[in-house]
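Example 3.2
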Amino acid sequence: MKGLENKTSLCENQAVLSTSTALCTLRAGMDYLLLNKNETLKIEVPYNGYINILPCHAQEELRYLLDGESFSGPKDQNVLQQIKNRQTLYISQKEASSPYIIAFIPQHALTDMQLETNREQFFTADNSRIKLLKKRVIEVENSNSVSKNIRIQSLLLDLIAFQLELITATADSTLHNNLLKKVIRAQMLIEQDLSKSYTISELAKAVGTNEQYLKMHFKRHLGKTIMNYVLEVKMLYAKRLILTGDCRIADVAQMTGYKHATHFSMSFKKYFGILPTALRNSLYLLPFNSTEIAHIVERLSLG
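Structure, written as tokens:
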């Protein structure tokens, strides 16, 4: 009885899913064929979606026609191509050195796929994982396994998923590189003329992006916000100018983009903890030449 009581207690403590809990639907329906060497394929596309052409050990450029329009891909590359219902696909294997695996993927099977809708083709280079999956598809296709269709579908899904990961990673890398170039361009604009005071909107427009992207990636790349970076480079430049002993505080203020010397002095004091006039006066109080003073002050915690 004690054991039964324990079992009852365990059941009572288990979470029970509601009948209203949403189920995850697997949309894995697709069609495929193996196009061998010296064969020609002419087929009407069965639905809207994508076609995945995977050459096996191909050494030649991939070529095919869709409704008479010619498409091609680099050798040793797999192609994912947008297709429309009732288009005519034509592929000739007369000059091919290896078979092609061709998968037709309905649009609804890839509802979560986020690709550039203005592109018709996507390419992925072969690697050891893709080559192994292709080899397994050929082996299972030529076998008499009772689970042949399920195994091939599983392998094809792996192939498609892996290609999508490569395409997405490449797109993310390209986007990152483009944004990085814009961040560097914004950084150069700030530094090349410190007498200017750009707004974030002006910088974003000048480098060809929006404010949110620029702010996010600027901080990610340089470790500080745009405004903090602007303040830093202006204050360090102002300090160098003052330490030369050749500039008036009002001139330094103008050269760092401040309209009023008082506003500049307040920013300088807040940043360094010392007024610019006090720093300048130290040049006359200490028994060193300006170069020696500059070296001494540089060693102080002034930024």
